[in-house]
């Protein structure tokens, strides 16, 4: 999706949820295919509404200018429309398969000028419920993009009985009072059977284990969702639902994701007092297994050291995702001796370097690294 979603709905970037909802409602009436509107335009405004009406999706869109629609579990465009207008409106066909409010909830009811009411499939062929799970990935896997195995236990239901709450329709009529003598009706999904029209017993199931190879896009932010089509539990007579995986980062020994920018990485660099005052060189092992040198020369003026940054932001060394690359934020932690020895001002050279003992960090002088040295005295 390349066009501006705010322009698609005709609202500004500061529009609140109610303004977005109002704009979509107006455009949906104009472009709905059953009113002679443009199906493609109806699809565009529905996708725009799906993203901008969701706080998390809107935040990602505002930050990156795009949303990965291929991995997003998109609702049916007509379902979005129905959530605004209930079951049906004059002059609008194809509004669902459950029956017309005010006419006894009879399925398949036709009205002049309204066309067929059976847009959706019958309850028995509706898509089965999906599953929401977490996919744990390492920062190294996210940095380079990879395919990871995911173990899932799938149930297969072998029998069913008709739901008595909706008589097998999968939907029921819901009435709501809007005031004295004013009632409104809408068709809603039956909760006991989750809209299927059937009930399933746990005793009539078998469980199998399957390992799915899940492609993890390079740099995918934590919390993003990956959809694995047709891998949820199996129900007789219904299309198998999808597995929705929420990406969760595993804890790393050295790096951590930033809470400010999902593409930034953070790490802490411990320094002894002598390193802080007399200079140091550290070699940092990055997630792509290359190394980066961090250098503070020994002749740096004390005033510059004491007023210098407690962190260093290194651009283009974070995650890369959809054309955007984050930064590596290094935070320096000075470890002061306790108690401070007498005559410490003249004994700084004797305060040996003892803070670096980590597989991702080493104290070296000279040698070659994979990236240009970061000189802190030139910040």
Outline of the structure:
This protein has 8 helices and 19 strands. It has helices spanning 5-9, 17-31, 39-52, 55-64, 77-85, 139-144, 273-278, 302-306, and strands at 131-137, 146-157, 161-162, 171-179, 182-189, 198-199, 205-216, 225-228, 243-249, 255-257, 265-272, 280-285, 291-296, 311-314, 320-321, 324-325, 328-335, 361-363, 374-375. A 4-stranded mixed sheet has the order 10-11-17-14. A 4-stranded mixed sheet has the order 18-12-13-19. It has a 3-stranded mixed sheet with strand order 1-9-8.
Task: Give a verbal description of the structure.
The protein is α+β, with helices and mostly antiparallel strands and 379 residues long. It folds into 3 domains: 1-85, DnaJ domain (Helix Hairpins); 129-157 and 206-251, Urease metallochaperone UreE, N-terminal domain (HSP40/DNAj peptide-binding domain), CATH 2.60.260.20; 255-378, HSP40/DNAj peptide-binding domain, CATH 2.60.260. Helices cover 18% and strands 28% of the residues. It has helices at residues 5-9, 17-31, 39-52, 55-64, 77-85, 139-144, 273-278, 302-306, and strands spanning 131-137, 146-157, 161-162, 171-179, 182-189, 198-199, 205-216, 225-228, 243-249, 255-257, 265-272, 280-285, 291-296, 311-314, 320-321, 324-325, 328-335, 361-363, 374-375. The strands form 7 sheets. The protein has a 4-stranded mixed β-sheet with strand order 10-11-17-14. α2 (17-31) packs antiparallel against α3. The longest helix is centred in the first third of the chain and has 15 residues, at 17-31. It is elongated. The two termini are 39 Å apart. Mean pLDDT is 78; it is low at 86-124.
């Amino acid at each position: 999706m390349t066009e501006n979603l705010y322009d698609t709905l005709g609202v500004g970037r500061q529009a609140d949820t109610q303004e977005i909802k109002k704009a979509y409602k107006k455009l949906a009436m104009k472009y709905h295919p059953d009113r002679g509107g443009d199906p493609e335009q109806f699809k565009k405004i529905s996708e725009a509404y799906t993203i901008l009406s969701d706080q998390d999706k809107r935040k990602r869109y505002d930050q990156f200018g795009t949303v990965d629609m291929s991995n997003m579990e998109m609702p049916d465009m007509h379902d979005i429309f129905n959530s605004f207008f209930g079951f049906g409106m004059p002059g609008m066909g194809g509004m669902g398969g459950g029956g017309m409010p005010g006419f006894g909830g009879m399925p398949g009811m036709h009205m002049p000028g309204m066309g067929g009411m059976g847009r959706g499939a019958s309850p028995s062929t509706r898509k089965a419920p999906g599953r929401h799970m977490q996919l744990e990935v390492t920062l190294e896997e996210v940095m380079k993009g990879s395919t990871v195995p995911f173990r899932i236990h799938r149930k297969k239901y072998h029998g069913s009985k008709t739901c008595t709450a909706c008589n097998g329709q999968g939907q029921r009529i819901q009435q709501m009072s809007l005031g004295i003598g004013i009632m409104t009706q809408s068709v809603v999904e039956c909760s006991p059977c989750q809209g299927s029209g059937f009930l399933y017993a746990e005793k009539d199931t078998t469980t199998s284990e399957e390992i799915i190879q899940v492609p993890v896009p390079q740099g995918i932010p934590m919390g993003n969702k990956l959809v694995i089509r047709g891998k949820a539990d199996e129900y007789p007579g219904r299309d198998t639902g999808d597995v929705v995986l929420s990406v969760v980062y595993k804890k790393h020994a050295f790096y951590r994701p930033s809470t400010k920018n999902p593409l930034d990485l953070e790490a802490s660099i411990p320094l002894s007092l002598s390193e802080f005052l007399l200079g140091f060189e550290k070699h940092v092992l990055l997630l792509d297994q290359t190394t980066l040198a961090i250098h503070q020369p020994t002749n740096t003026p004390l005033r510059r050291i004491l007023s210098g940054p407690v962190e260093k932001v290194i651009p283009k060394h974070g995650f890369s995702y959809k054309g955007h690359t984050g930064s590596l934020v290094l935070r320096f932690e000075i470890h002061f001796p306790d108690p401070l020895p007498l005559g410490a001002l003249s004994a700084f050279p004797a305060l040996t370097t003892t803070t670096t003992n980590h597989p991702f960090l080493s104290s070296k002088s000279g040698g070659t690294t994979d990236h240009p040295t970061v000189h802190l005295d030139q910040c």
